[in-house]
Amino acid sequence: MTRLSYATFGAMAFAMTAFPAFAGDPAAGESAFTSQCQNCHNVTNDAGEVLAGRPNMRTGPNLYGVIGRQAGTIEGFRYGASIVDAGEAGLVWNEDDLVPYLLDPNTFLRETLDERRARSQMSFRVRDEDTARDIIAFLTQFSEVEDDDAEEESEG
Fold this sequence. Notes:
Elements: H1 3-18, H2 26-37, E1 42-44, E2 50-53, H3 81-88, H4 95-103, H5 105-113, H6 129-140, H7 148-155
Antiparallel strand pairs: 1-2
Helix pairs in contact: 2-6, 4-5, 4-6
């Protein structure tokens, strides 16, 4: 192996450890949402326009603005007690919490609430972490997520 190859390999290894993993692919997330999520959820803005999913889906809550929203708080939707309890305990949806929730909703709620009987009404599980991150990247475009850097610039 040449010196250049060692240098390139070393730079790649440093880059992989120095920076956080890419959060997900919104295009792949749209595809996953269409094939896996829209059977129960849609994304409908405040004007009533369906931006993703099927109109009039009522099985799961509207996912418009889900990133950054307190769990279990869509007015008029009948959530299960555990997700409401988690929201009241301070759960606000972000990537770090949505990934494990999408992978295993019951286990996530049981661990979050420290209650072995906690249950989610969402029985579906996303199969892998990459797909969960892709779905989250797709949903992020329908949410107002605070950008800490932009906030610091406006304060400075």
